[in-house]
Structure formats: structure tokens, C-alpha cells
Amino acid sequence: MRLAGPFRIVALVVTVGLTWIVASILLGGPGSGFPRIQQLFISTENSVTAEPRARKYKCGLPQPCPEEHLAFRMVSGAANVIGPKICLEDKMLMSSVKDNVGRGLNIALVNGFHLPLDPGVSGELIEARAFDMWAGDVNELLKFIRPLHEGTLVFVASYDDPATKMNEETRKLFSDLGSKNIKELAFRDSWVFVGAKGVQNKSPFEQHVKNSKHTNKYEGWPEALEMEGCIPRKTTAS
């Protein structure tokens, strides 16, 4: 029992000594400040190289469009829950946030002409509207697309049901705008399309997915479609 006191003193001295040695190693020795601790933090920061963020261009495209082209990106509605989006030249033309989309066909009309004396005109939104193709009046849609002027770009994104109210005249008008899938468009199909008044050939900007219980992504609806690209401006000397 008499030796307990000396042993405690020795243990205390050893503990203090070890603490001093460890502190000296970490702090880099007397008068050197905290270089080694700083090096630990610096080396950790330098070892983690931030991944370069992929640059996004107009409407989120991965690459810029060539000159005299309009950048666009559009997404059809997802089931009857998430509304469609239509973006052109980094401007959102239609979306749920803008509160201008609805069930059926969502259509944005855009001036596709490039006027040499007024280049700002090309790509301007003329009008954007949603047409209910389940319970609406198809004549409203016909009044909207019948009087289109030559060169008008037509952006279409489906939401929920794009086709129940569609008749032969409607399909003919969209076919004349360049659609190749309009004849097969049916109840709750997903469809995105960019056409133009006066085109000679079928549009390269179109996607269509059939509503099928065997392939549907959502219960009762196919997957949403996303399409992006670059549309050449149409030049007129007028």
C-alpha cells in the first residue's frame, strides 16, 4: 500500500511525457506552430478534386446549336400527374409553373421566320394554349391551327389523353404540318412533335409511344417522352 503513491506519480509523469511527445509530433515541434496539422487538412482538400460540371447550353442542351438554329427541349406529360414542358431558346413557353398547360394537347405557336432587317422576330412566341382532348370541343383546336401562316413553328406536347376528341380533319392538319405518327395517335398515348406550316417533308422532330398495358411505365399510361434538338431558321427576304 505504501508503494501506491510513487506508482501514481510515475504513471502521471509517463502520461504527461507521452502527451507531450504526441503533441510535439502533431504540432511540428516548438516554435513551428501548426504546420503538420495544417498539412493534414490541406492535403485532404487537395486530394479531392471537384468533378467538372458539364456545361449546359440553351434549354439544357448538352451542346450548343449551330448559328441560325433554334434550340429547343420538350417533355410530354407523365400520366395525369406531371404536366408537360416546352422550352425554346432558353425560354419556357409552356409548363406547370407558368400555369398554361392542361390535359390533352399543349401547343405553342412560334414565328419561325428569320427576317434580315429584324432578326429578333424569329423564335418569338405567337400564342400557347392547351386543348382538352377528352372532354373539350375539338372545334377550338381546329380554329387554332387552321389559319396558321407559312413558316409558323408548331410545338406539341401531350398530357394524359391527346386523341379521344380528334377527328379526321385534325389528323389531316397535323399531317400537313409534318407529323408521321398522327394517324396512329390514340387514347392516352404519349406524343411530342415539332412541325411547321408549309413543310414539304415529314418532320424529324417527333416521338410517339403507344398506351399499352404490356409496356406502360405508369398504371394506365406509357412513359413520358423527352425530345431536344436544333431547328433551322427559315429565311425570307420580305
Automatic annotation (TrEMBL):
One of its GO terms (cellular component) is extracellular region. Its main location: secreted. Residues 103-198 form the ILEI/PANDER domain. InterPro entries: FAM3, ILEI/PANDER_dom, ILEI_FAM3C. GO terms for molecular function: carbohydrate binding. Keywords: Disulfide bond, Lectin, Secreted, Signal. It is found in: Secreted. CDD domains: ILEI_FAM3C. Pfam families: ILEI. PANTHER family: UNCHARACTERIZED FAM3 (PTHR14592). Belongs to the FAM3 family. This is FAM3 metabolism regulating signaling molecule A.
